[in-house]
Amino acid sequence: MDIDVGALGKVAVLMGGRSAEREVSLMSGGGVLAALRARGVDAHAFDPAERDLSALKAEGFARCFIALHGRYGEDGTVQGALELLDIPYTGPGVMASSIAMDKIMTKRIWRFEGLPTPDWRLVASAEETSQALAVLGAPMIVKPAREGSTIGLTKVMSVEECAQAYALASQYDPEVLCEQFIDGDETTCPVLEGAGQVQAGRAQALPVIRIVAPEGNYDYQNKYFTDTTQYHCPSGLPQAEEHEIQRLVEKAFRTLGCRGWARADIMIRASDRQPFLLEINTSPGMTSHSLVPMAARASGISYEDLCLRILASAALDGGAGRP
Length: 323
Prior knowledge:
Elements (H helix, E strand, L loop, with lengths): L9 E5 L7 H17 L3 E5 L7 H5 L4 E4 L10 H9 L8 H8 L1 H10 L7 E4 L2 H11 L3 E5 L9 E3 L5 H9 L5 E5 L3 E10 L9 E3 L3 E4 L7 H5 L5 E3 L6 H17 L5 E9 L5 E7 L9 H8 L4 H10 L11
Parallel strand pairs: 1-2, 1-3
Antiparallel strand pairs: 4-7, 5-6, 5-7, 8-9, 8-10, 8-12, 10-11, 12-13
């Protein structure tokens, strides 16, 4: 994939921001910034929590690499601002970002399209959380509807834990999702437009990563700050299972109208090996522990080239924007 670095212009790497994932975003953005500079890109750090986005236009930035995570970063808000500024950006557009950030809306669309996702209930109180447990059974996952990185998530085993789980999740979002727990292999699979030998603009799933966390607890700490979680890529799954997950992820990506890149999380139920889509991340992590770079390496794509490919795919909803 030949990319004219000079044609990319002055690039802002958006990092930090105001979400609960600010710390991780700064790590992601720092890695992306260094990678782009190593490839000769005129790249600069830009923290929307510290500077007004209007400065992007005033200072002549030609495109943005969005390394923001969570609220105000991958929920369609910054994407909408960049649309108004006429500055192309990486990742899905306004609508796709907004839908994907909302786990409930995502699941509704996937269910309508016939894609497998765990059963769920939307709750507004501790009492409704207990009622959801009676329907969904234990264990049950309780989490904010619009957060990432397992922030505010609890694995509930009994009715006595419902009130505390709801209280934690509702600290981050008034909409709380109760989700059926799928017991089995935890996997994730990135999607990248123009990956491998496929033509630009066509989304293709990268290799599947199988995740083995301590005691099955793949939480915020084990995602980003420990080295005890095991990541298997190649996944070690049967080839037919790997291909089915990739097929599902590509369809999930297209169904939500995504573009550029994303990463979907999938559980494989142990009892019958049925895969279930959990969620899709439209601005995945790019830290040293992150999974998109890991899958890209397995495809022969270096971290620096991955960042360059993602940047080159920057666009606006109405078209590609300025070259």
